[in-house]
Amino acid sequence: MWAYILKRLLLMVPTLLGVLLLTFTVIQFVPGGPVEQVLSQLNARTTGGEKAGPASDYRGRQGVDPAQVEELKKLYGFDKPAHVRFVDMVVSYATFDLGRSFVHHKDVWTLIKEKLPVSISLGLWTFFLSYLVSVPLGIAKAVRAGSRFDMTTSLLVLAGYAIPGFVLGVALLVLFGGGSFLQWFPLRGLTSANWEELSLWGKVVDYLWHITLPVTASVLGSFAVVTMLTKNAFLDEIRKQYVLTARAKGLAERRVLWKHVFRNALIPLVTGFPAAFIGAFFAGSLLIETLFTLDGLGLLGYESVIRRDYPVVMGTLYLFTLIGLFTKLISDLCYVWVDPRVKLDG
After folding, report:
1. How many helical (H) and strand (E) elements, i.e. helices and strands, does the chain have?
2. Would you call 292 helix, strand, or coil by DSSP?
3. d(Cα 176, Cα 155) in Å, to the nearest integer?
4. Which residues contact 258 (CB under 8 A, 6 or more apart)?
5. What does the buried/exposed string (b/e) look like for 298-312 if buried means 16 or more CB atoms within 10 Å of the residue's CB?
6. Residues 6+ apart with CB under 8 A from 143
7. Which residues of 175-211 are buried (b: 16+ CB within 10 A; e: fewer)?
8. What is the 3-state secondary structure (H, E, C) of 7-40?
């Protein structure tokens, strides 16, 4: 076991370096970097307001003092060769120094901590609601396989899965967010402007009032995957020989289901639990955050790419990749914890 964990930890290093190197290389060929954007603005002011578009090789430098160009390169760290900058970045990342944002003029760590509460709110609600609803529903569907209840719930969860989250979000805003119909919920943010003035209970109600529509748009599509996975896993276990033997011994159906079938059927869900938990925080929230004006990590990453804020792009990529690699390791270890038959050392 420990040899396997050590081997996986060592394999994370080249994987992480490969991801960083690939992304860093792509960034070098993307036009419109921070230096080009500043030079374009300076050139537009010099030429009477006609703003030049960003292009490669700093074409916006026309009409700008070459010394000023060099100062800008030094300011943003582009005065060094690419390989030197990459090595410096890797060394800094080894000590979890993620750099400083070009746009926000803050440490990347500080930005991530500022945006994290929004992503945590969406992620926790999405994750727990998905599992608390889908697992019992999947078990009920497996016990009543082929019944009207099974067919109806399958139709509903698959219909929810087919509707993209942002489309559902737009519909919810139109219907309940003050669009063309009802104004039951707010349009933006996680809290009201008078949040600090509210009582404790008032803050809880205000928070739930704001989070209802975003969570509904995020969670509905995830019901189908977990529900159908639970149902199929239970059906596969129910048909096995040990269940028939337990029933033949006269055990109650409830005891057979919850004591014998439950643990084996939940192996696929438990092993995927860490990945689903982390993915709920960092995946799929961009459109929801943009639609409901929630200032979270998804929106931060998107704006950083558009505005060429490379320290934020690389810093968040490094952090999320590292979390993903450790999550994958934990998922593999869960196999041993849930199913003793699995031997990782072999």
Report:
1. 17, 0
2. coil
3. 25
4. none
5. bbbbeebeebbbbbb
6. 234, 257
7. ebbeeeeeeebbeeebebeeeeeeeeeeeeebbeebb
8. HHHHHHHHHHHHHHHHHHHHHHCCCCCHHHHHHH
Residue-wise pLDDT tens digits, 115-151:
888 878 887 888 888 888 888 898 888 888 888 998 9
- Contact in structure between 237 and 258 (CB atoms under 8 Å): no
Alpha carbons within 13 A on the beta-carbon side of 26: 10
Copy the structure tokens of residue 128. Answer: 């727990």
- pLDDT digits over 147-164, tens only? 899 899 889 888 888 888
Question: Letter for the amino acid at 202?
Answer: G
d(CA 268, CA 138): 13
What is the rounded distance in angstroms from the CA atom of residue 274 to the CA atom of residue 335? 12
At 41, the pLDDT band (50, 70, 90 cuts) reads: low
In three-state secondary structure terms, 107 is: strand
Q: Which residue has the tokens 């968040």?
A: 316
